[in-house]
Specification:
Length: 204
């Protein structure tokens, strides 16, 4: 009698294709969107941080240099370790605290007189500009200090006569070692002390 041949192994070798239902498709689509949104948020955050940092560096370099004070020549107005913010400016006025380049360093002193003005200092440390004694409430002591220039002294053209507030120790325009500051040496005027916090405020 004839027998039909069995299709051996057809069920074992058949590949099975699983088709997800609509709920599963929606869930996978939402998961993909969330992952894409998270990556987009990360990229935006990194871009924002980089942009802010670049702008801060640009501002600090071009317009508002941040400086740290070393030494005591400006005490008590500024102490060793204070961090200050300056602004780029060449319209320096008497009494301004200025930072300037000197021998590859930045020094900080107070502007006392400008081009053409006459400066004199007596033995008690009183400072006179054009014959009038300066009122200097920022000082806690006066001193003749290190002075090897001929007094009275006329400030040269395009230069500024500067002195430190700690007159007995400051080496400044009273000494030929430093001399008067040329306009192009000026880094800026100090406007705020930002560290330590108990010294936070305007530099005066």
């Amino acid at each position: 009698m004839g027998k039909t041949k069995r299709d051996i192994g057809s069920e074992e070798t058949r590949e099975h294709l699983v088709i997800p239902n609509s709920a599963e498709l929606r869930a996978e689509l939402q998961r993909t969107k969330r992952a894409s949104g998270y990556a987009h948020a990360i990229r935006n955050t990194v871009f924002t941080l980089v942009t802010v940092a670049a702008v801060a560096i640009l501002v600090a370099t071009l317009w508002m240099p941040v400086l740290q004070i070393y030494g005591s020549s400006m005490a008590p107005t500024l102490e060793d370790g204070n961090i200050v913010v300056s602004v780029k400016a060449h319209d320096v006025h008497r009494g301004d605290v200025v930072a300037f380049y000197y021998n590859n360093k930045i020094l900080v002193k107070r502007a006392i007189a400008k081009s053409g003005e006459w400066v004199n200092v007596d033995e008690e440390g009183n400072v006179y500009v054009n014959g009038e004694m300066l009122d200097e409430p920022y000082l806690t002591e006066k001193a003749f200090g290190e002075c090897d220039i001929d007094l009275p002294y006329q400030v040269p053209e395009s230069r500024i006569f500067v002195m430190g507030d700690h007159r007995s120790v400051s080496v400044d325009s009273r000494s030929t070692t430093v001399g008067c500051v040329a306009d192009e040496q000026v880094v800026g005027k100090l406007v705020y002390c930002v560290w330590p916090l108990n010294r936070f405020g305007a530099v005066g």
